[in-house]
Amino acid sequence: MHITVKDVRKSFRRGESEIQVLRGITCAFAPGVFHFIVGPSGSGKSSLLYLLGGLDTPTSGEIAIDGSPMGQWSESRRNRFRGAQVGFIFQNFNLMSNLSALENVLVPFMPAGVSNEQREQARQLLTRVGLGKRLTHRPSHLSGGEQQRVAIARALLKRPSLILADEPTGELDSQTGNEVLGLLRELSSEHQATVIVVTHDTSHMTSADFVHRIHDGVIVETRVPNPAIVGPETD
Ligand SMILES: Nc1ncnc2c1ncn2[C@@H]1O[C@H](COP(=O)(O)OP(=O)(O)O)[C@@H](O)[C@H]1O
Ligand SMILES: [Mg+2]
């Protein structure tokens, strides 16, 4: 999925005053590529991510998905986009404590009824992320890294062409964080998905990632990887 963002602004009313959280964001995201949006807390990263996923609408400016401006979409078109094409991953995993790992992955499909094929795909995905032996475990019996991998499997089951992750390593130790991002990188190139990870922590970035640096609601720098160094990491 190709995403273009043109002069996007977002403000929120707080009492009498209006705060401008995004102040003219222009950038682009390409498929099969791993993008980071980095910046300090309060710089507008989550707000931008919610706009990209169609969870919120800009105050002005335009976000286009494969050339189609979201601002012109009907409510049902927007719902279909969110439901079928976007996989969200959050910092606190958002798993349901009374469901097993397998059931948590199937949650998005439960309203319509889960088919045997979906159940089998969920099993395979969990196995793929290293949780084949944890299918029936509840979240409280899984480590933080394992819970985040369940959340990744849940986001991937519908084969989204856009994966949005908001501080996905925020609750994880540094090594587990690296493993989770490594897994997302692998899956993104396999699925040719557009992956956008928002974080304030630059320690997991590699030279092969696109990095958009945001400060006070403005993108102040975009680092494009040097094609010569894109490829398997050597360190
Ligand atoms: N719904 C909202 N209403 C009012 N202010 C908001 C809302 N969402 C975010 N903000 C404010 O916008 C600023 C940026 O928030 P956010 O996008 O969450 O930043 P980040 O994810 O980079 O920490 C913060 O000052 C936050 O308080
Ligand atoms: Mg945030």
Describe what is shown at a glance:
With 235 residues, this protein is α/β, with parallel strands linked by helices. It has one domain (3-229): P-loop containing nucleotide triphosphate hydrolases (Rossmann fold, 3-Layer(aba) Sandwich), CATH 3.40.50. It contains 6 helices and 10 strands; from the N terminus they run βββαββαβαααβαβββ.
Task: Give the mean pLDDT.
Answer: 92
The count of domains is 1
**CATH-level-2 architecture:** 3-Layer(aba) Sandwich
At the fold tier of CATH, the topology name is: Rossmann fold
Strand order, largest beta sheet:
6-7-8-3-9-10
Strand proportion, as a percent range, falls in 25-35%
Characterize the biggest β-sheet: 6 strands, mixed
Helical content (DSSP H or I, runs of 4+): 25-40%
Shape field? globular
Poorly predicted runs: none
Number of H/I helices = 6
Q: What is the H level of CATH, i.e. the homologous superfamily? A: P-loop containing nucleotide triphosphate hydrolases
Radius of gyration (CA) equals 18 Å
CATH class: Alpha Beta
Structure class: alpha/beta
Bound molecules: adenosine-5'-diphosphate, magnesium ion
Order of helices and strands: EEEHEEHEHHHEHEEE
- N- and C-termini, Cα separation: 30 Å
Keywords, please?
single chain, 235 residues, alpha/beta, Rossmann fold, six-stranded mixed β-sheet, four-stranded antiparallel β-sheet, 10 strands, 29% helix, binds adenosine-5'-diphosphate, binds magnesium ion
